[in-house]
């Protein structure tokens, strides 16, 4: 490789890299040119040079000089700017966002590019800091400045070259600002936690400091020490606490994955046994079992891990013993651990649980010789390819803080996280005593091989445990939901008229786009939604045609009229991915002005829409379909119940009611067609929490009731989604935004079928096709228990694969199939106010019908891959957050209302049972010690029966699918601080 520079007549400098490659015995010369400039400003208000040499743009604007001419001083009295290294941003982003420090910050382009490659979410947060007017962060494009750009030297690693580029930028800023004409000296502080890079910087006369050294030189250092990532904090206790196996190096992992001796997958920790996890890989039908903390090897739930298969004589059955993390090492000291074995035999695990675990180990050996089909392959974690670490919420363990602890000294203590499958986090803080009883946010920084627990640092407090504000914010953080207010840049994308915006007149318009819209304001359009819905994104109409067919229209809010691709508003919507619905609030994907006003298809006002209009025959077959951007005027906004009452009222004979009756009639035929094709009718224990209108306190829980109008809307939304999917796939066969639902592997239903065989002879779930599954579920009826079929559908839902978004080029057409809906192709088009997938589908449909050109981001497969990865994650997180909100408020309703209810046993273990209570949609674990005599219990794994002597000294047997009576009350978990349903078997 040969590097050279030359100056062009335009004033630009071009650096060329010449490569010589050999192909088929011949030489190929490759020249890559990189253009450099001499007019990139330093962005400092203290610099007169840059402000004088720069030219204004066509509008007369100069670059925005942000860095203060009089920056803050350190304790040592130096006014300073800060230059950050990559590791500081990646590990201390929450500290950078703190409003008590880090002002006048320079981020080299080299660093920003590294951050973007290593963590896109943190990159987005950095961009937010750059846009903040208070923090004064700037990005300096050192890679395009001729005075700061550096070529890579011979035999120099990319990392070393980047470090050198950053150091050169620091030196350039120092020389640039502190020349003989400078009014005052501004110190340039380079903050870097890489000891080697820092040593080189110091040798080059750069003021280079670690993060800890910099914080200690600030006047408010006492308030900031707790926020320093522990990679720069000494947590050593003087001796090794334990010894985890070291991870394999990168070359060994790459070779192992390539030759099939190592496997990669996502780790899922069992919610009932934190010592057991599974990793699903394509190479095995059954998931790989990871058993014990040594084999889990510091992996967190949801980490992407590299695993190595254990010998076949070590394969085992999944554990049938409940083991909870809070029972292991509950009395550990955060600062001075002993060397007890980390496998779980230390701590306060009960003698019974230890015996059961030992019995399972022995049993696995006998099973191996008796019935190998019951065994699962086992493996151990040998590497982490991607950590799932994020903000975690928990509380400081009271046992790790003593009354004698000084309030001024930093103290090691444990944080018990809300998620019970995660380990305790050790942090160092001076505020341990004052934070007791509060929900706090922590970040995990590291987990060394000689530490029993991961190390992290405190970020902030959310408030008192069980306060509605703290618990709501906690569940949003736990499920990685973005809930901060929309930035000014985003809000600036909204129409200037705000809420006064109205649909413009299309008569004689000179706007070519507006002229393409169809005026459908004469149609009898109405919306049917849940009560009090304000973000109305769909409406319908129907009318009979002279030929005996029907015209049916689905009209969807035209969000993309306001949300243009590539804008700050679009980027924010893409990042959030979806709106999140909690019991007491809604976290919007788009600003409220759009979602509840300008885009919402409210009645009696003109609105822009994207319409799909079919001609359907009497049997709901499609005769013709058209897609168009339109203007509509909804006649009425119905709730499901109000629409049902109007349809059912024979005295209502107006045209709008008749149109809804047509819709209902056709929707029933559409649904029957889906069911005939094998669509699944599954179930989930959905409940609704009623809030007091005056106090906003939860006061009642009821199971959601579904009316025919619910199905009416659902069927036509499905119908529209299918039609649009076909249209956009025809237009964009590689990048169409689609949604698929894979067929579940038979192993997913293996355990459920074993339960049915043991407890309900003659019943079984068939998996040959979705139709076979649907028919078999219909047959599984217990004449003595009407709820049993619903229970089985709930349990079957949990065995299904998750549906996912994907660009059409990622799979062959047969794999597009949506198993649950029994259709060959599907997308989401009908809710663009609350789902970003639908926004993309709208843009692609607009391109497909020639309304407007499609943005490049939706025609590029790599960019579409990035979009779908994010929205799949956001969609999943939103579902979990919604369920967690219901769980919290159900707990509040039950708080002072202990009562007896029917429940169903859905799982049995050696030392407990899990019971579902349909009334509240909650399930609770009842451990053996709450059932009766622990030592008398016997578990029959073939019949899923647990036999024990109950608290009344009577022998009793409970089994899977049994209907039982339970007392239900809400209790606060003293370990995690989380309120949960406590069930007591009657």
TrEMBL record:
GO MF term set:
3'-5'-RNA exonuclease activity; RNA endonuclease activity; tRNA binding
Q: Which SUPFAM superfamilies match?
A: Nucleic acid-binding proteins (SSF50249), PIN domain-like (SSF88723)
Region described as Disordered: 325-346
Q: Which GO terms describe its biological process?
A: exonucleolytic trimming to generate mature 3'-end of 5.8S rRNA from tricistronic rRNA transcript (SSU-rRNA, 5.8S rRNA, LSU-rRNA); mRNA processing; nonfunctional rRNA decay; nuclear mRNA surveillance of mRNA 3'-end processing; nuclear polyadenylation-dependent CUT catabolic process; nuclear polyadenylation-dependent rRNA catabolic process; regulatory ncRNA 3'-end processing; TRAMP-dependent tRNA surveillance pathway
Coiled-coil region(s): none
Record keywords, A-Z:
Cytoplasm, Endonuclease, Exonuclease, Exosome, Hydrolase, Nuclease, Nucleus, RNA-binding, rRNA processing
Q: What is its main location?
A: cytoplasm
CC per GO annotation: cytoplasmic exosome (RNase complex); nuclear exosome (RNase complex); nucleolus
CDD domains referenced in this protein's UniProt entry, alphabetically: PIN_Rrp44-like
**UniProt similarity note:** Belongs to the RNR ribonuclease family.
For this entry, the protein name equals: Ribosomal RNA-processing protein 44
User: What is the scientific name of the source organism?
Assistant: Suhomyces tanzawaensis NRRL Y-17324
